[in-house]
């Protein structure tokens, strides 16, 4: 395996372990065993655990934000369609970590690392904060556009709706873990849609 391939493989396994087991449960030993390499090889590529976690988090946040910007900035898509697309993005991530017919497994790196924020570097905590700010900005822009297009119910306030949407999205994984699976998350998103969408 080439150096870039090895580096990416390390990050892929680290992402999986971080989501499933949290910061404490993602060890260089487990990654090395999974890939059939040495811990020294991982240190060669990343130095220490903080650097690896920061890079995995940065990649994950970028990919997630790009996907959400694409969903929420689609010109010819209604507000309802965007919420359904948001459910689809979440479902795909959920299913990656929860086999068919099963549930109860963590599936969001952001949510998982928020639980372990005290173990992260200052840079890692800043990345989590930045993700939350960007998430809110995506929703605020989309809800403002929906208001301009006359898609919101008469009493719906775009800024308030964006805050609620960001709170749901930022807590999507914990909702599925504590509230009975993915269906509960769908119900919450669709309930918000009924509240804010012009009928």
Describe the structure.
This protein is mainly alpha-helical and 199 residues long. It has a single domain, classed as Orthogonal Bundle (Tetracycline Repressor, domain 2), CATH 1.10.357. Helices cover 74% and strands 0% of the residues. It contains ten helices and no strands. The chain has helices at 3-21, 28-35, 39-46, 49-72, 79-97, 109-115, 122-148, 158-170, 172-178, 182-196. Helix 1 packs across helix 6 and helix 7 (122-148) crosses helix 8. The radius of gyration is 19 Å and the shape is elongated. This is TetR/AcrR family transcriptional regulator.
Topology:
Blueprint: H1 3-21, H2 28-35, H3 39-46, H4 49-72, H5 79-97, H6 109-115, H7 122-148, H8 158-170, H9 172-178, H10 182-196
Apparent shape: elongated
For the record, the count of structural domains works out to: 1
- Main beta sheet: strand number and arrangement? none
Q: Quick one: CATH class?
A: Mainly Alpha
Beta content:
under 5%
Number of strands: 0
- CATH topology-level name: Tetracycline Repressor, domain 2
The H-and-E topology, N to C, reads as HHHHHHHHHH
Helical segment count: 10
SS-derived structural category: mainly alpha
What's the pLDDT, averaged over the residues?
94
Level-2 CATH architecture: Orthogonal Bundle
CATH superfamily: Tetracycline Repressor, domain 2
Unreliable spans: none
Radius of gyration: 19 Å
The share of residues in helices is over 70%
Protein name: TetR/AcrR family transcriptional regulator
